[in-house]
Amino acid sequence: MSGYLDASASMPLCAEARAAMLEVYDSFPGNPSSVHSYGHRARSVVEHARTQLADAFHTSPDAVVFTSGGTEANNLAVSGIALASPRGRRLITTAIEHPSMLETCRYLERVHGFALKVWGVDGFGRVVPQAVDVETTLVAMSLANAEIGTVQDLPDAAVPLVVDAVQAAPVLPASLLTDHWPGPRVAAMTVAAHKFGGPQGVGAVIFRPGVAVEPQMHGGGQERGLRSGTLNVAGIAGFGAAVEAVHRAGIGRRAVALMESRDELIAGILGAVPGVRLTGHPTERLPGHASFVFEQVSGEAILVALDVAGFAVSSGSACAAGSAEPSPVLLACGIDADTARTAVRFTLPSPLDSRTVDRVVEIVAAECARVE
Ligand SMILES: Cc1ncc(COP(=O)(O)O)c(C=O)c1O
Hints:
Blueprint: H1 15-27, H2 37-56, E1 64-67, H3 70-84, E2 90-94, H4 99-112, E3 115-119, E4 138-142, E5 161-164, H5 174-180, E6 186-192, E7 203-207, H6 233-249, H7 251-272, E8 277-278, E9 289-293, H8 299-308, H9 328-332, H10 337-340, E10 344-347, H11 354-371
Helix pairs in contact: 1-6, 2-6, 3-4, 7-11, 8-11
The chain binds pyridoxal-5'-phosphate.
Pyridoxal-5'-phosphate (PLP) binds at residues 69-71, 74, 98, 100, 142, 146, 164, 166-167, 192, 203.
């Protein structure tokens, strides 16, 4: 899988997650809500994974609520806290959020009458915070952006923060998270298994203990009544194993190695392709993330040229792939619509050797020269 350079879309499944999932499938533990011994075994698998997440994020197992992925985690965290809060009816989010954050805020505005303020960003994609009214119900924003890689400082506001850590948590040193977590301001943080090397379709909200939450999925009362539905036992086992593996390997060490490859790739492309620009912040960015806009050549053309040579990259956010619309994230950074359509993103699952970096640079440069 050496040509797979789309880790921000999904990381390849790691060996630890695969083994944990196979063990569940092979032993059929049953439904964790069942009273018999099969159910008891399934419950132990889930509770073990809950502890693995709690240990990694320096919180208590009670704080972890499993969901069907990052999207559901953002929906539950934002709607759940907003609808349970007695404070104001005012939400703040930013112009560069993942649709699962932005659209949840827009839904609360449209259907539940919340006033919504959307903070803009500078040319590097750094959020420009404004004064926060104490009546604000919550501020919902990501710690790192999937499309441009920019890492944010969280605002120093005395209101609850809902932090989308789906991209940040697997690659940023734990200290960055613990600076803010479990801080008094972070009411909830969201994560997704497939960004850690776990399976797709599993995620979690990590709530600050004691925060009030209105359930969004109604039913049998699983996950302390906050998220009903039979749990994905194998997926949760894989999630726990992947999070533990990432932390055991040393998130800081991996980040340093990724940064070296990232910087080599950025320097290579900037040096070889006339008119290319890095998007996002030059240094305050995810360690394995390199994203660019080009002159005249479309992002799709570069993506296809790389794909033919065995390299998988993204020409926008994965969920918007196939859409001819320019990325709202790039527009928010002040990039014009035509240039935004040339975007290409490389996100490294592991460090690259220099020969691979050179080959990628060569293909991108050749494609750009071909269409000039
Ligand atoms: C920042 C961010 N938040 C949320 C999500 C949604 O996660 P999922 O794909 O698990 O629903 C993504 C997915 O890429 C993301 O990048």
